[in-house]
Amino acid sequence: MASADKPINTDVPEKDVFALHFLQSLSNLRRQNAFNSPDDTTNNRVKKIKKAAYVSMARAAGGTNRLWSRALLRRAAKENNKVVIFSRRKKRVTWLRRSNRRDPVDAERLRNLLPGGGAMETSKLMEETAHYIKCLSMQVKVMQCLVDGLSAK
Amino acid sequence: MDLSGRFGVRSGGGLLFREETALESLHLGGGDEFRQMVPPENGGGFTALLELPPTQAVELLHSSSSSSSQATSLHTLGVLAFPSNSVLMERAARFSVIATENQQTGNVSGETPTTTSSVPSNEHIKTEPAETETSDQAAVEKQNNRCGKRKDFDKKAKGSSKKNKSSEENEKLPYVHVRARRGQATDSHSLAERARREKINARMKLLQELVPGCDKIQGTALVLDEIINHVQSLQRQVEMLSMRLASVNPRIDFNLDTILSSENGSLMDGNFNGAAMQLAWPHQVMETEQSYHHRQLQQPPPQQWPFDGLNQPVWGREEDQDHGNDHNSLMVGSASLHPNQVKMEL
């Protein structure tokens, strides 16, 4: 029988953590020569920054302990031909869709939105979404602060 | 057809023939199984039946174990009308698949009696095998535990009309008040399914609190839409901000750069420490920095890099030296750093 798990943990680290990781990745970007040279198109830069933002968010939010962050990191690492190091996986990957009978709460769009959402059960999906939303809003706040600080000069 | 057989069986009660419509009697047949409580309430002709002694009721129930097939007849007869017996309807709605089969929303858990809800969509009744009497016992306790949660099903009814075919089977024991519904193949599956649905609903509630403006919305589909919109808007915001950052970035020379580079090695290790660091980060960022310091015996100035950088109202200013002198104070009290972050307002 399915048992109800009582506490749904969606704690998110403080803003400092996110800021830390983001600035770190930004500095990494700056150190790339290609980034600062004028022949790097704006679009590329935007993309890189965006990617850096997501990756840093994933790291700040939970590293490989969260499904969505894990999927995000893996996706990013694949593009860079790197390997994601898994540390301390709490549970083994669920044998999903088999047990996930598509009930009327069909969260297909949500699955598409959330990184790694295609491989989760619906209840797990929602939990991850909650965490993802929190982390996203935190990341947005950090970036907003950064932009304000930079542009206020 | 089964009906005749059932009528014969129930002739002991002698009540069915009093019913006005065959429909009603049919419903009665369906309802019988669910009615453990024998309420002496008023109402239509059903009440008489209800007043049967429990044993007889049980017998009826047992005899009607083949009721699954009768469901088809119920279905063909269409909507049953029980205008007079609201209490009965309530109970029937509560107990019977009938309510669930309909696509009506509020009827599943059946607090709201609705006459039209009495028609069971028999596909489901058909699918279920003869009641598993043995498993009922086990189901009873569980059901009794869940009686209080009946209200949840009001919400779920709409979304889960297809699947929800109730979980628990109706037990045949008299006087056991159970929220039973015609359900899935076996009890364990149905129970698991119900538990799962409850899980999902709990999470949905959590999400609703998270997303602003979701509390007022009724219905899971709309709430989901709202959640998706919120996530999309957040993602778009990230993209917008990254665009702005990209445009702003080059004209500022990052002093952070030098600071960060020296600190990078230590911090990179920290990232991959995984949970340990994650636990440390939220509480005492300074603390971990100090631990880094101890580990690496680095010079203090690099250690304060994040706060330095954040501390600077203007990125380009070369004020490291000034802050470098402050590092002692920083290490002493992490709390003191935060008041300094006026500009960044983190």
Keywords for this structure?
heterodimer; A: 153 residues; mainly alpha; 7 helices; 0% strand; B: 346 residues; MYOD Basic-Helix-Loop-Helix Domain, subunit B; disordered N terminus; disordered C terminus; transcription (chain A); transcription regulation (chain A); Transcription factor IBH1 (chain A); nucleus (chain A); IBH1_N (chain A)
Structural features, described:
The complex is a heterodimer of chains A (153) and B (346). Chain A is 62% helix and 0% strand. By secondary structure, chain A is an all-alpha fold. Chain A has a domain at 14-34 and 41-77 and 115-152. Chain B is built from 19 helices and no strands. The longest helix of chain B is centred in the last third of the chain and has 29 residues, at 220-248. With 346 residues, chain B is mostly helical. Chain B has a domain at 188-260: MYOD Basic-Helix-Loop-Helix Domain, subunit B. Chains A and B meet through helix 1, helix 3, helix 6 and helix 7 of A and helix 11, helix 12, helix 13, helix 14 and helix 17 of B. Chain B: InterPro entries: bHLH_dom, bHLH_ZIP_TF, HLH_DNA-bd_sf. Chain B: GO terms for molecular function: DNA-binding transcription factor activity; protein dimerization activity. Chain B: Residues 103-174, 309-346 are annotated as: Disordered.
